[in-house]
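--- STAGE predict ---
source: upstream dedup step, 1 unique chain passed
mode: sequence only
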Amino acid sequence: MYLALLVIFLQCSEICTQKRVFTFNAVHIEVQPSAKVENGAPMSIICHADISKSTDFNLQHNITIFKDGKLVFMSVSGKGDARYEVPMARSSHTGDYQCAVEAGGKIKHSDSLHVWVTGMTKPILIAEKKEVFEGEVVKLRCELPEEVPPLYFVFQKMKVNSTPKQKLQEELYRNFSVVEFPVDEGDDILQFDCFGKRRVRFEFETSLTSNKTLITVKEPFIKPTLHIKPSSNITEGKEIRFECSTVVAKMRDIEIILLRNKTILSSVRDQTTLKYSAVATLEDSGEYLCKVEEGKASKTTTHNVVVTELFPKPILTASMNELDEHKELTLSCSIKDFQNASFSILRKHSSRDILLRNSRNLTMRASVNDTGSYICKAEVNRIVKESKPVTIRVYAPVSMPSISVFSGLPEVVLGRPLNLTCCLMMGTPPITFTFYKGNKNKKKIVTNNTCAAFLDKDIRQNDKGQYKCGAKNHHSSGMKTSKVLNITVIVPIRNTSLGSVPYGVVEDGRETTFLCSVEEGSWPIHFRIFRKMDRDILLFERSEHADRVVWQKKEMSRQDTGTYYCIASNRANVSAKSHPITINVILASWQKGVITAFVLIPIAGVMILAVWWFWCKKKNAKGPSMEMSRSALATNSTSEKLSRQHNDGDYYSGSGYIEDGENHMKSTDENKGPDLESAEVEYTEVEVSTLDPHRAPVQKGTETVYSEIRKANNDSVENRHSRIQGRPDAT
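--- STAGE serialize ---
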């Protein structure tokens, strides 16, 4: 039963699930009345979802509307439509709108729709003051209510019969802007207004013009007046008076200034009148300006003044402008067509002019110290005029010049420039120096010194180096010439080489001669010979008036093996290094002989011992064959000896002879050496004497004993001695 109920429940759930299937066909967004709305008009943004369902069932819809990506409206209902109402559209509502519908875990977005609210609200202009003084500023505030930044504000200042002045202000974060306009001199009644702008996509939209604001300008003071007495026919020497005055509304930091050609003559502060007077001179002609200032306000009045010349400037003349010392100099001062004046002659100085004489003329004996500028002054009716300066130059004669090398030594390195100086003990500049090199010359004028420098870059090896200089100034004595300076041209070292005798290989103890030479270079030459090590060792050095040097090293040793080089230098201070040479010190001939003797003699001894050992070994191998041939005789001899020892006290033994004979044979065999190996075996018959056991005289008998005798290959020598060695077991 329970199983049946479960099956029924599952089937009913499947049927219900199949009935709740839906899908989004589309989501639409629209604007009423249209996508372009006038500012202030109502506007509706409608979002509609087109959904297909399997059956008719309730479905909750979450509808959201976005403007420029920001959420502006949200609705939850069972319907697929939503409406966003804007009762008064403003320019801030301009933008891109999009809506999204979410239902049953599914979401669908509409396309984007651009809405443009045309027109902007009218701006409001407010002025901080309605009345201002000249020099002050007008502060204005322009606001665009209900508009959203960024915005642009344009302020306009207008006055009668003039072009409006504008100021543009950009506001990124607020819908109002504040500016200040200065009030200039002459401003009377000013009118201000403003308007706003905003950017819509790629265009600017402009608002209506704001309300107009009137500003009244008041003068803090009136335009000044300038009075000059006398007003005309002003002649030098007369007194001229100036008076500048104004009327102020309020005494507050008022300043009056009098100027002539932009040069301030006088000024007063917190006063309404300025007075100034002076003795008229020709320099007083020009434009005079009276200026009144208070804060930023200022007013001016100008007047031109012409002063008539009473007498012209004096003229100073000299008998000569350039002269020798100790000669007479006359200075005269005069005024054209005018005689009644007081004259004075002065010498100009940096600190002050020095009065020489109150007279029209001055005569003096000139010295070098009188060189300088002179003027004369003329005075008439307190008017003093000064002449143009006259320059006088008094010359002392030049002394005999001396020429020298700047470095001190009269020499120069080939390829380097030569610096020469020509100096005088006395002589008044400017001085003209002339340098001579053979037939060539070069001039140089010095204005403030008694020395001149000369640079000769064309130095050659075959130059004779004869230099001299001459000097002259404006003195009548003329030019004087120095003595001739001879210059030595030093040729730098070139191509240094090093050689040795013997070259390359030297026996120990032998003498070696080193030769260091140069191809070119001025004497003396300093030679140095080095041996190349971790730190090169100086072996020899010497200065020679020659292009080569020889050094003999008496005894060379094995430690002298190595690399050698030499360096040559002279007064050119340029060192030239040779290519290195390698010397190998080997053993001398007698040293080789000694070493050979000490090495070969022990080797020969070892070889002889080896041969002897080999012979002995071979001899021992052949010994048993001889013992067998001697066994019978040895047995008999032994028995006989034993019997005689028991029976005869004067026993005579032949063993010593036999042993001596054996030793003799051994020595002979050893001397034969290897020849024994190739000897032939020969048998011979020998006589053997035996002792009588009863001490009878020695009996001679004949026994045949076979003994081995080795015969040399050449058959030249035969050993005829036979040795019989007694054995203890002989019979």
